């Protein structure tokens, strides 16, 4: 029977600064390091190399564990004096021959080989090596006492009173004595847990197993975090470490445990060390008494107000009160990280509430450990907030966000499911003299939204300039719909000139916003807003109506040779049901002949829903409307796709034409433009070049056989009334 839940500690993972994927697995270099270690300390003995590889894997687990517990490395030091693992040791080597080169090699090569590079990895390795040395010294002392005992009594040290060993792969852990003590252990009405010095739970007596809702013994040792409520983990780890160090003989505490069904169990625990035959600590024992009935008398109203009922983390009310008090104190700084789990709803919907709740418990535990002394709260269904008092600057808060992300990097193993979860984190920091709690919360929430837009699994620091720009965009969006009704939009027309005749062949309608406060606003500032908000539909209808009305006046004044009007069509418009009827209705209402209207579409608009788009464009072409594919060359069109597209013309994107302005043009760019023109003509399509701004560009495009040009060399966009005069002046010559 497995443990109630699996909440593996967060693996220490240095920041990935180069953007490249890391080598899979934490032990990619272990076998190579083990072989080198065996060569240095054991003359290349293959058996020693295999054993040393096992020790290295244990050392890697110690270095990467959260919380980091260097005392767990002490047992690894004990085994450095032998090469037989848990079996009979090999004949003793001279300690200096093994220990000195071993430690030198570890300090030099272990950080990279074990997957813990960087200053933090070096710090952890130094602490672990110190404990390994302590283990070696202790083992030597025990060996000396054993030799003295054998010499004095004539009884071999292996004949010490029988000790039962729980089979734990890779280590020897004495836990329970003879059958009488075993019977007492199993029949005690109080819960008893046996733990190794590394903090793993080795065994539970039946009474404690029943408290957890287990129906049998543990199938393997489990980390203590699998059983302890996340909010109490820090205190439990501290108590266990004090016991192992010998700072105290007994620790007593009230804490919360978590049952198989994720319900919380209040207990009183008394922990102590158990010593071996030589007076050395061999393991820990904890006596556990159920206090749940006592704690049920707590006020449910108080709990619901200040604690999240699942994770028992502080609630939003505690966050608000903490911020109120912190901002009341002058001259300090405060930081905040707001987290939203990426993809949690999908896991919850797929695997159910029980798995979802246990995942939240696991996340809460890891965040609590990674946050250290900082306040962690649950502020939403899949949202958490971490508050930091007194950071030096925003970089301090960002480093906290890095630790929170690293804490979630290791998959959660729950009921046979390996669940990967990440978080979008918003980071904000401010001096209490310069802001208010509500502003700080909003800043972190906004930054979290930016992190989600970028795909999640990252943290983003709040940026005042970016927020100001987005606020301005929001203000534009708020007034965009009303601007259509208030008739604040205007049209300007830029001529399309035929290279062969120099005559104005058509004119593109370009929309401008005559904003009452900001003056004239170009389309680059509001078209995206209009498309995302849906305002592009009424705006596009107005542009079409106004452009056709203007083109009718040209047609009536200049006759059948009058230039056509070209109107841009948004992908949103093209996907609208009834859009074709809208176009033909405008033509009928204004009296403009269909061939005097050109609609410019982009590849994106067609590729959104090809069947719908092809049907609409085919119907428009059959009605006589001209169609042009805009910004050609920047998308993903294939020749087969282009052959079936019912368009009359292609407009080469200006980025290609821009390269023709230099006296010595880029030969590659020149060749691309030539190829585009030749390909278009082979398909029977007319070619328009955008961004024609110099005589040299116009001459080169003429030589390449381009049909139509558009750009400042022919004239900027102006009022519709100018177009007839431009047509008469033959401006292309």
Automatic annotation (TrEMBL):
Q: Which ranges carry the GGDEF domain?
A: 332-464
Q: Which InterPro entries match?
A: Biofilm_reg_signaling, EAL_dom, EAL_sf, GGDEF_dom, Nucleotide_cyclase, PAC, PAS, PAS-assoc_C
| PAS domain location | 177-247
Domain named EAL: which ranges? 473-731
Give the start-end ranges of region Disordered: 1-24
Q: Where is the PAC domain?
A: 251-303
What protein am I looking at? Bifunctional diguanylate cyclase/phosphodiesterase
Traced from the root, the source organism's taxonomic lineage reads: Bacteria, Bacillati, Actinomycetota, Actinomycetes, Pseudonocardiales
């Amino acid at each position: 029977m497995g443990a109630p839940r699996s909440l593996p500690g967060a693996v220490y993972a240095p920041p990935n600064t180069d953007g490249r994927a890391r080598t899979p697995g934490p032990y990619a270099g272990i076998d190579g390091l083990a072989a080198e270690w065996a060569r240095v300390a054991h003359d290349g003995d293959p058996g020693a190399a295999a054993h040393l590889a096992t020790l290295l894997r244990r050392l890697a687990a110690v270095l990467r564990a959260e919380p980091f517990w260097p005392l767990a490395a002490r047992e690894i030091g004990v085994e450095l004096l032998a090469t037989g693992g848990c079996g009979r040791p090999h004949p003793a080597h001279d300690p200096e021959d093994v220990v000195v080169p071993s430690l030198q090699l570890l300090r030099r090569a272990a950080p990279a080989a074990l997957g813990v590079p960087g200053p933090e990895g070096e710090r952890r390795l130094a602490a672990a090596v110190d404990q390994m040395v302590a283990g070696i010294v202790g083992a030597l002392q025990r060996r000396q006492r054993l030799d003295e005992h054998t010499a004095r009594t004539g009884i071999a040290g292996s004949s010490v009173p029988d000790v039962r060993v729980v089979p734990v792969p890779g280590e020897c852990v004495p836990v329970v004595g003879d059958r009488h003590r075993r019977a007492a252990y199993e029949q005690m009405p109080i819960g008893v847990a046996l733990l190794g010095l590394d903090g793993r739970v080795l065994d539970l007596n039946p009474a404690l197993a029943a408290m957890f809702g287990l129906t049998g013994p543990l199938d393997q040792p489990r980390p203590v975090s699998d059983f302890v409520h996340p909010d109490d983990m820090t205190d439990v780890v501290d108590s266990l470490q004090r016991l192992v160090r010998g700072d105290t003989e007994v620790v007593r505490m009230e804490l919360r445990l978590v049952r198989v069904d994720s319900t919380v169990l209040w207990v009183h625990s008394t922990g102590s060390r158990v010593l071996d035959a030589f007076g050395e600590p061999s393991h820990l024992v904890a006596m556990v008494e159920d206090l749940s009935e006592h704690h049920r008398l707590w006020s449910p109203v108080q709990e619901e107000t200040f604690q999240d009922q699942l994770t028992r983390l502080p609630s939003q009310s505690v966050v608000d009160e903490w911020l109120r008090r912190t901002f009341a104190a002058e001259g300090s700084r405060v930081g905040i990280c707001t987290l939203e789990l990426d993809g949690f709803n999908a896991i919850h919907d797929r695997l159910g509430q029980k798995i979802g709740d246990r995942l939240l418990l696991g996340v809460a535990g890891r965040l609590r450990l990674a946050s250290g002394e900082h306040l962690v709260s649950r502020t939403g269904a899949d949202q958490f907030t971490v508050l930091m008092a007194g950071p030096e600057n925003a970089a301090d808060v960002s480093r906290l966000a890095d630790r929170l992300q690293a804490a979630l990097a290791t998959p959660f193993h729950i009921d046979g499911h390996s669940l990967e979860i990440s978080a979008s984190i918003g980071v904000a920091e401010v001096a209490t003299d310069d802001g208010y709690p509500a502003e700080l919360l909003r800043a972190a929430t906004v930054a979290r939204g930016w992190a989600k837009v970028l795909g999640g699994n990252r943290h983003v620091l709040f940026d005042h300039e970016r927020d100001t720009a987005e606020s301005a965009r929001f203000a534009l969006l708020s007034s965009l719909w009303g601007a259509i009704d208030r008739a604040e939009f205007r049209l300007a027309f830029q001529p399309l000139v035929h290279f062969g005749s120099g005559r104005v062949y058509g004119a593109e309608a370009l929309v401008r916003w005559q904003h009452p406060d900001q003056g004239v606003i170009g389309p680059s500032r509001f078209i995206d807003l209009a498309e995302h908000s849906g305002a592009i539909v009424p705006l596009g209808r107005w542009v079409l109506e106004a452009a056709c009305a203007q083109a009718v006046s040209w047609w009536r004044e200049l006759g059948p040779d009058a230039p056509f009007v070209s109107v841009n069509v948004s992908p949103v418009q093209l996907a609208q049901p009834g859009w074709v009827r809208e176009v033909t209705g405008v033509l009928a209402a204004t009296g403009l002949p269909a061939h005097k209207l050109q609609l410019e579409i982009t590849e994106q608009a067609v590729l959104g829903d090809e069947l719908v788009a092809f049907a609409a464009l085919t119907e428009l072409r059959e009605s006589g409307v001209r169609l042009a594919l805009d910004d050609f060359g920047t998308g993903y069109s294939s020749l087969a796709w282009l052959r079936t597209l019912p368009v009359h013309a292609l407009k080469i994107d200006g980025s290609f034409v821009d390269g023709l302005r230099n006296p010595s043009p880029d030969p590659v760019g020149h060749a691309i433009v030539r190829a585009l023109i030749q390909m278009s003509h082979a398909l029977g399509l007319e070619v328009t070049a955008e961004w024609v701004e110099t005589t040299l560009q116009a001459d080169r495009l003429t030589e390449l056989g381009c049909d139509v040009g558009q750009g400042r060399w022919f004239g900027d966009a102006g009022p519709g009334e100018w177009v007839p005069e431009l047509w008469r002046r033959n401006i292309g010559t």
